[in-house]
Write a structure and sequence with these properties.
alpha+beta, Lambda Exonuclease, Chain A, 2 domains, 4 helices, 30% helix
């Protein structure tokens, strides 16, 4: 069940998405830091908002809701110029030090765009007017992919019959879980 903080985060994400897509020229005052970053991104030759990627076990791109999905990744904003791209994740709420999600964004972009040699990634902490930055080179991707594989193996060890035993906590990994929504309200999968 969405709470007020989640609803606020969704609304701010939607406002930034529309701004980057040129569907809106205005952003709420509370998004001043986000607007500065969005305006900077719009100077790139290529800018996209809300990119969704789904890979099967053979790392082939497939549809978001495919039953063969191995991993799903959604990136709030991507700006690219030649061999370099930036991946942005708009964040509301408390600032957290973990940059694993940023590494996943870099891996995803390099997996789908062979011309990339460098991906700069950022959490933009909208409430704190701050950011967390990480840079990833193509040479880093083997290590990043090993971490992703290890995490996916751990997720896949869990049998659907064990679902009732889990404490259902809404988190950023929910989008990668294979548990259908009929068994967990946090799931992104229909069923």
């Amino acid at each position: 069940m969405p709470n007020a903080a989640m609803e606020r985060g969704t609304q701010l994400h939607l406002a930034l998405e529309k701004f980057l897509k040129g569907e809106s020229n205005e952003l709420p005052n509370e998004l001043l830091y986000g607007q500065i970053e969005a305006n900077r991104l719009l100077k790139f030759p290529e800018v996209k908002a809300e990119l969704e990627f789904t890979f099967d076990e053979n790392l082939k791109l497939i549809s978001w809701f495919s039953k063969n999905a191995w991993i799903r990744i959604k990136i709030d904003a991507v700006a690219a110029d030649g061999a370099m791209a930036e991946a942005i994740d708009w964040k509301t709420g408390k600032k957290k030090p973990d940059s694993y999600q940023l590494a996943m964004y870099a891996w995803c972009l390099m997996q789908t765009r062979p011309e990339l040699d460098l991906v700069l990634t950022k959490y933009i902490w909208l409430d704190q007017s701050d950011e967390t930055r990480e840079a990833y080179f193509r040479s880093d991707m083997d290590n990043v992919f090993t971490c992703i594989q290890d995490d996916m193996k751990e997720l896949n060890k869990r049998e659907p019959k064990d679902i009732e035993q889990w404490e259902k906590n809404k988190g950023w990994l929910c989008g990668y879980c294979e548990v259908p929504r009929s068994k967990c309200e946090n799931s992104a999968l229909e069923g």
